[in-house]
Amino acid sequence: MLQLVATPSSNTFSAFPPELLWVFGGILAILCAATVTGRLMLARSALTPATSRSHPTIPPSPHAGQRFAANWIARVHAWWWMVSVLAAVLLTIHLTDSLWPLVTFFALLSLLSLREYFATAQLTRQHHSWLLLSFYVLLPMQYALWIYDHSVAALLLTPLYGVAALYALTRSSNAAQRRSLRDVASGVIVCIYGLSFPMALAIANGQGTGIRATLQLVFLLVISQASDVFQFVAGKLWGKRKIAERLSPHKTVEGLLGGLVGATLLGATLWWLTPYSPIGAAFLGLGVAILGFLGGLYLSAKKRSRGIKDWGTIIPGHGGILDRLDSLWLSAPLMLLAMKW
Amino acid sequence: MSTSNGCLPTHSYPSTDRYSLAKNSGLTNPTPVVLQQPRESEPAVGRWSGAANRTIVALLSGLTRIFCGTHVDDPHGVLRVAAAASATESRPPRIYIANHSSHADFLVFWTSLPTVLRATVRPVAATDYWLAGPLRRYLSRHVFRAVLVDRRDMDARRNPLWPMLDAIERGDSLILFPEGSRGDGAAISPFRCGLYHLARAIPGLEIVPVWIENTAKVLPRHAWLPAPVPCKLRFGAALRWDAAEDKQRFLERAREAVIAQGTPCYS
After folding, report:
1. What DSSP character marks residue A319?
2. Do A227 and A299 sit in the same domain of this protein?
3. What kind and span of H or E run contains A76?
4. How far is B56 from chain A (nearest CA, A)?
């Protein structure tokens, strides 16, 4: 088993790494600014008269500016929560000097996103064995293999034998069955295999058990989430040309470019979180943003085909957990690839 | 019609004039007649008496919450109204009807109810299944407090409506799965006629359509290991039997009301 808890003799207990203090200080400043911006937008939109009343008894509906401000505030509010949870997990890692809090946290995220994914899948009772296999065999196996340091097995077993086992459990093979099978197999690859890589990034980088092992993970999380925010803001400000209207109606070329440029610059700025040079970190940021966009696009297409808007309702303003993690399942393997190259 | 020697009427459902429920429908019926028929009714069920029953209730509903994380959608405020009325004496007789695909259906439904309603909502279950073994017997009698109905040999002497009428008369609400047995989670079978006879027997009976989603993924028929898939419930506006309506049309309307609560299918 990989050493997840520090041995008593090693005595590596040290101060909280200054890199993380800088990162969280920056996030704190940005969230404060975003909160103030939201309040200002709401106040300004409340000053301007709302849409003209068609009838004196019908209350005026909130106009677009007010709705946007309310949505902005809800999103920022949720960001405060998400950042707090992540900070609490990192603090627990630091205080206990072990990576178990991180493992638990990401295994839980994986489980919750898999639940969200299956909640809207088109399945009938013949498909129960697929669900049991995913929840009770593949998910624990994937995480156990990383924890027990069988990296090669962790990389190979789920996509090869796990998916093969799904096929083996299929009784008949008509078109509907094959569609459901593809659907479940993508769920396994996205939520179990892909989303186990962020955790693998921390426990397989040879930095020991302390909080310094999570620096690259923090880099990945900051870049991918910031790239989403940059895309959202740039799309709102300059978005004109739709990039994939049928898959994801709100994604625009201008938003994507804004996101990529922002992620590249941020990657270069945060190079000190990684073992690479600023140029290398910039390219890594670009790669993370591109793969994050593609991963999000894939899951958006899934949502469209199921006729849903969000994966869940657990994060107000954002949707489900999978809506936040959709940019991680393709980009986290890239980080591991860069690390092990 | 009702005689002192305990003979039951020979027609298959009790007519409204004799068996209307006095305390619930006094307004609609000018001369309410209290049920006076001695019946071979079910043995008295415990109201979660005993710490063991309460522990099992808490365990089951906690597990259901963790496993299915029930999300309730109540756009018409059906539950809110019922919870508010449960404090007063005058609550209208009410049953819930839902699609049925799993044993988890009742658990999910029951766990998602407000606590005040949970004590008064009882499932209608078949004796041939739920009295079959000691565990099922214990669960159905003491934990779920099921209204047990014999669906195999129904005749005038053992009218399956009697236990349901008893329970409603006592002030309980019922959750009924009018499909009769568990489906595959996709198609909704035609409704059995018991719902119609119940609606005819009790004037002013509120019938609340409920759609229970994803329980077929949690625990389909013949499965014994549940999968932790989140479930969703949606309550529709209450409907009532219209005296001009014939059986077929009423059952079809009720079925459509349940289906209308489900999210439309995409593929």
Report:
1. B
2. yes
3. helix A64-96
4. 25
Examine residue A208 and state whether it is found in any structural domain, yes or no: yes
The answer to the question of residue A194 being in a domain is yes
Identify the helix (H) or strand (E) that includes residue A300. helix A278-306
Is A287 found in the same domain as A231? yes
Q: How many separate domains does chain A show? A: 2
pLDDT at B42 over 50: no
Give the separation between CA B244 and CA B142, rounded to whole angstroms.
40
Q: Which domain holds residue B39?
A: 16-261
Residues A73, A77, A79, A80, CA torsion sign: positive
Asked if A199 and A143 count as a contact pair (C-beta separation under 8 A), the reply is yes
Q: What is the pLDDT of residue A48?
A: 64
CA distance A251 to A248: 6
Is residue A291 within 8 Å of A334, Cβ to Cβ?
A: yes
B228 to A135: CB separation less than 8 angstroms, yes or no: yes
Q: Confirm whether A3 is domain-assigned.
A: no
Name the nearest CA neighbour of A305 among A179, A126, A167: A179
pLDDT in tens, A123-139: 887 889 999 999 999 99
The interface pTM score, or ipTM, of the predicted complex is: 0.83
| pLDDT, tens only, B201-257 | 888 899 999 999 999 999 998 888 999 999 999 999 999 988 888 899 999 999 999
Å from A124 to nearest chain B CA?
A: 6
Least confident stretch, A39-48, B86-95, B165-174:
B86-95
Please check whether residues A170 and A315 belong to one and the same domain: yes
Domain count of the fold of chain B: 1
DSSP, residue by residue, A212-253: GGGHHHHHHHHHHHHHHHHHHHHHHHH--SBSSTTT-TT-BH
For residue A147, what are the CA distances in angstroms to A2, A6, A202, A215, B22? 6, 15, 11, 18, 67
The structure tokens 């236990």 sit at: B163
Judge whether B265 is closer than 8 Å to chain A, CB to CB: yes
Element containing residue B175 per DSSP (H, E): strand B173-176
Longest dimension (CA), chain A: 77
For B:173-202, CB contacts with A below 8 A are: 184-186
User: Residue written as tokens 């205080």?
Assistant: A95
pTM of the model: 0.84
Residue A10 placed within a domain: no
Q: What is the pLDDT of residues B117-126, one digit of tens each?
A: 888 888 888 8
Q: Is residue B56 part of a domain?
A: yes
Give the tens place of pLDDT for each residue, A299-341: 999 999 988 888 988 888 888 999 999 999 999 999 999 988 8
**Are A316 and A231 in a shared domain?**
yes
B200: nearest Cα among B45, B41, B93, B55? B93
Instruction: Please give, rounded to a whole number of angstroms, the shortest distance from the CA of A111 to a CA of chain B.
Output: 9
Its domain, for residue A77, covers: 17-51+58-96
Facing residues of B210 across strands?
B98, B235
End-to-end CA distance of chain B: 55
| CATH number of the domain encompassing residue B40 | 3.40.1130
Which among B186, B223, B227 has the least Cβ separation from residue A124? B186
Ramachandran area for residue A128 (φ above 0: left; ψ -120 to 50: alpha; else beta): alpha
